[in-house]
Design a protein that fits this description.
Blueprint lengths: L5 H11 L4 E2 L2 H8 L12 E3 L4 H14 L3 E4 L18 E4 L6 E5 L4 E5 L4 H10 L2 E2 L12 H6 L7 H4 L6 E7 L5 E4 L12 H5 L8 E8 L1 E2 L3 E9 L2 H15 L3 E8 H11 L11 E9 L5 H15 L5 E4 L3 H12 L1 H6 L4 E2 L3 E2 L5 H15 L4 E7 L4 E7 L6 H5 L2 H14 L18 H4 L2 H14 L13
Parallel strand pairs: 2-4, 3-4
Antiparallel strand pairs: 1-2, 5-6, 6-10, 7-11, 8-9, 8-10, 12-14, 12-15, 13-14, 16-19, 17-19, 18-19
Helix pairs in contact: 1-3, 8-10, 13-15
The protein binds flavin-adenine dinucleotide.
């Protein structure tokens, strides 16, 4: 196996101190596998710097020596973007020690934070000045701000606040040659040329190393109302969204779709109670939040539900009456990926389609995958208000898991073709990484690919930052 020469590795180690370099397979193990274990890499070392200056020196040396650097935050990414290849010559640059909160500004409602801080730490820092950072993901205890921005993470509150990109005012980025771009802008308006931060957000660590960011905060939420509804179809979930937005404006912070099969998995594997007396085809978790305390929101949600039931948009509905009941409703949604895993192999998708095509997509994709694999069980759930469905397909009961998972690409192709045929995307929020890199020529025009590869060449002429990711 190829190796990075020991003298080069020693020069990297001298920048941060040997204590912060991991060299043995055992020490590096947790950095080499990603959550779904689809990608496993081999690295020459893991470097753990704790300052922008150290990152800058590391990149300058990497550029000089042609050493590939793989940026890694919390290692929760789902497309293998943070995993090295198997050459043993690449270095993982872990940002986890670069985690200071640099400034929390109540007057401006901004948080300036280093890239390796976890999303949860950022949320807590916002909470300490009575503000709210809306980015909310199930991985928030381990994923980092740098990773969130590099992947333009979405999550549960996008319908009201947008994705990570919409929450980012400024960035500090170390370029491939070690230069530092200080774009830690707190301005809300700044029309002075190209929006460079937007270029780095969503670039999956291929254009530069994000070392710090300025995030936009919002008033802390003082009240919330959570409801769980049964609906006949995904189309009704969207009618419900429109109704709720009409009646309460920006207060709709979450709308998640769940299928009956998903609820059944959770009832079976977690002894959860069915909130309704009888089964229904689809369910919606609807949450409203407000910066105002009091009962107004509860009345608001009651009125929405009453209208929905009256107009036949919903079949049945419950409203959480206590924190415990709110947690129970949320558990149904949050446990879904886990309970699905108890049913065997699951082939995943992270598609989005225009909102008005969600029903068509779900119908066509379900028919197509069952045609392909009789007995396969589509479990489509997710951020219906963003047109983003995690169209996961669980193996047929009793099927051989490995044989089923061996058909991953075949199933993906069928589902992706339906989504793109409707003007949709094959990756709504997880990114491209290694997993979907081969799809790029099919989903991007020649012009788009030329612009993207041109930018990569300009910013990283020696192709040392995260090579083999995102770009075909
Ligand atoms: C249980 C679970 C739930 C999830 N839910 C969601 C969800 O709802 N919505 C969603 O969008 N994602 C979700 N994800 C995916 C994942 O959590 C996000 O993509 C997250 O933003 C990744 O952050 P990270 O710090 O773990 O990044 P990593 O996994 O370490 O890296 C991800 C990518 O970003 C790059 N990168 C990391 N840090 C930097 C940096 N400082 N500078 C430059 N590049 C960098 C890496 O090279 C890689 O390409 C989920 C994952 C899990 C395991």
């Amino acid at each position: 196996m190829a190796q990075l020469p020991a003298d080069i590795l020693d020069r990297f180690a001298a920048i941060i101190g040997e204590k912060h370099v991991l060299r043995t397979a055992g020490d590096m193990a947790r950095y080499l596998d990603e959550p779904r274990k689809k990608f496993h890499g081999i690295a020459a070392a893991v470097l753990r710097p704790d300052s922008t200056e150290q990152v800058s020196k590391i990149m300058a040396l990497a550029n000089e020596t042609g050493t590939a650097i793989i940026p890694q935050g919390g290692n929760t990414g789902l497309v293998g973007g943070q995993t090295p290849d198997d050459s043993g010559t690449q270095i993982i640059l872990s940002l986890e020690r670069l985690s200071k909160i640099r400034d929390v500004d109540a007057a401006q409602s901004t948080l300036t934070i280093e890239a390796g801080a976890t999303l949860e730490a950022a949320q807590e820092a916002a909470g300490e000045i009575d503000r709210f950072l809306p980015l909310t993901l199930a991985s928030q205890g381990s994923c980092t701000i740098g990773g969130n921005l590099a992947t333009n993470a979405g999550g549960l509150n996008v319908v009201a606040y947008g994705s990570a990109r919409d929450l980012c005012l400024g960035l500090e980025v170390v370029l491939a040659d070690g230069r530092v771009w200080n774009g830690l802008n707190t301005l809300r308006k700044n029309n002075t040329g190209y929006d460079l931060k937007s270029l780095f957000v969503g670039s999956e660590g291929t254009l530069g190393i994000i070392t710090a960011a300025v995030l936009k905060l919002f008033p802390a939420s003082q009240s919330r109302a959570t409801a769980f509804l049964a609906v006949e179809s995904p189309a009704q979930a969207l009618e419900l969204l429109n109704l709720a937005q009409q009646q309460s404006g920006e207060r709709v912070t979450t709308i998640e779709l769940l299928p009956r099969a998903g609820l059944e998995f959770t009832i079976k594997h977690h002894q959860t109670r069915d909130p309704f007396g009888e089964p229904h085809p689809w369910y919606v978790l609807l949450e409203l939040s407000s910066s105002q305390p009091g009962n107004e929101l509860a009345n608001n949600v009651e009125n929405i539900l009453a209208t929905a039931l009256d107009q036949g948009i919903a079949i049945d509905a419950v409203i959480a009456q206590s924190n415990r009941q709110t947690e129970d409703i949320w558990a149904i949604r949050e446990l879904l990926p886990e309970t699905q895993s108890y049913e065997g192999g699951s082939i995943k998708h992270d598609i989005s389609v225009p909102l008005n095509r969600i029903s068509d997509f779900l119908e066509q994709a379900a028919i197509a995958v069952v045609d392909l694999i009789p007995g396969a069980r589509p479990v489509a759930f997710g951020h219906v208000g963003d047109g983003n469905i995690h169209f996961n397909v669980t193996q047929p009961v009793g099927a051989d898991t490995n044989a089923f998972l061996a058909r991953w690409d075949e199933v993906n192709k069928v589902v992706h073709d339906i989504a793109t045929g409707m003007g949709g995307s094959v990756s709504a929020e997880h990114g491209i990484g290694q997993l979907k890199r081969h799809l790029m020529p099919g989903i991007k025009s020649d012009v788009e690919l030329e612009i993207m590869t041109g930018l990569k060449r300009q910013l990283d002429p020696n192709n040392i930052i995260n090579p083999g990711k995102l770009l075909p």
